[in-house]
Amino acid sequence: MDNKDDKSSDVKATTKRDKWMPLIVLALFLLLVSEFFGTSCFFSSVFGIPCAGCGSTRAVRLLLQGKVADALRMHPLIFLTLFLLVVIPAFAVARFIAKKRGKPFRSPLSRRATEIIFFSLAALYLVVYIIRMILLFPHTEPMLYNKSSVWGKLISLIRGVFFR
Fold first, then answer.
1. What distance in Å separates the CA atoms of residue 152 and residue 146, rounded to the nearest whole number?
2. Residue ranges per structural domain of the chain
3. Reported pTM
4. Burial class of residue 119, CB neighbours in 10 A (0-12, 13-18, 19+)
5. What is the mean pLDDT of the chain?
6. Of 41, 59, 88, 108, which sits with the fewest C-beta atoms within 10 Å of its C-beta?
7. CA 121 to CA 85: how far, in whole Å?
């Protein structure tokens, strides 16, 4: 009987470790990308074009300095992003606490409403990204082309070899 309990506790410990593994791998990967490419934006480092979130870190810095207009210029959805970065972990913590207490966690929104909000936000971020790419790329900060990206270096190499 004790042997069975030991096996089930080993399985639980293993599954808890397995849940954290993707986050640990992602953090190590971002540190590696930052070290090799000088930026933490994998998308920009590899493809040379900015991602949908480019400018967010600079926008937060500008907000902390009280430069709201400049922050909105860096990323127009920065307030929404910060709101989501507070609300989503708060719900995760509330769900975790309820689960630890053995109580069911009821979201204030239905599953369908949550899906609608999620897809609406994804569409909003995509539309803002496309507009920023049309209006600002490749000449206006933060939507600049990264010539030192992997793709940019590959294109330069190909141009140098075939189009001298």
1. 7
2. 2-158
3. 0.70
4. exposed
5. 85
6. 108
7. 13
Tokens coding 72: 């909105």
Confidence of residue 153 (pLDDT cuts 50, 70, 90): confident
3-state helix/strand/coil string of the chain: CHHHHHHHHHHHHHHHHHHHHHHHHHHHHHHHHHHHHCCCCHHHHHHCCCCCCCCHHHHHHHHHCCCHHHHHHHCCCHHHHHHHHHHHHHHHHHHHHHHHCCCCCCCCCCHHHHHHHHHHHHHHHHHHHHHHHHHHCCCCCCCCCCCCCHHHHHHHHHHHHHCC
For 104, other C-beta atoms within 10 Å of its C-beta total: 7
139, two tokens: 């000449």
Residue 63 C-alpha from the chain's centroid: 19
Position 11 pLDDT exceeds 70: no
% residues pLDDT > 70 (the chain): 84
Tokens for 52, please give them. 């949908």
pLDDT (average), residues 30-48: 73
Whether the CB-CB separation of 146 and 45 falls below 8 Å is answered with yes
